[in-house]
Amino acid sequence: QVQLVESGGDLVKPGGSLRLSCAASGFTFSDYYMSWVRQAPGKGLEWVSYISNMGITTYYTDSVRGRFTISRDNARNSLSLQMNSLRAEDTAIYYCARDWARRSRGDAFEVWGLGTMVTVSS
Amino acid sequence: QSVLTQPPSVSAAPGQKVTISCSGSYSNIGRHYVSWYQQVPGTAPKLLIYEDIKRPSGIPDRFSGSKSGTSATLAITGLQTGDEADYYCGTWDSSLSGGHVVFGGGTRLTVL
User: Fold this and answer.
1) Which residue among A17, A20, A55, B15 sits deepest, i.e. has the most Cβ atoms within 10 Å of its Cβ?
2) Among A59, A114, A115, beta carbon nearest to B100
3) Residues paired with residue A7 on neighbouring β-strands, in sequence order
């Protein structure tokens, strides 16, 4: 079945780095744009980053641009988020999400993982 | 402050209809498709509506979306206790550098 499984969440000190991964299965990974969406404790959804299906185009929310890098390995059906210079406000559950549209940006997320928790605290 | 404005909470009795509004501007809702998500606390969000009015496979027709100008609405008919959840609208916003996905602040639905 269609599935996304995130990993890599951890407790990290401010200024530290972390790399999140998302393993995809059950669909042709290289056909879909992918995103990371986060949710701080008790707060709403916040989109973080988008990557095109072939990895050529990326988008970031302003608060993470220059600190986070999204990437993908279509041969391994894997999505990653490299997070540097982490801040307390980056504390959140990070969800990996797949677009509904094939080979284009549909701006709606049809498949979600269960999320991985990132805590930034000294 | 969210770019898209939703009411913090709505409530209705089982079997009734409820609507949730999502207000934006020309650079987001006015120019781009709107999606809606349901999130039961402690679980991942679920896509209910995309491209303003379309439902993914498996979403019952009790859920419907509409849009007019810079506002969108999610309607839920025949309310069930299982519909109690947080609901979020989302869309693309092309006013910001390179464009962004934006979400509303969320609406908590209580089925009385």
Assistant:
1) A20
2) A59
3) A21
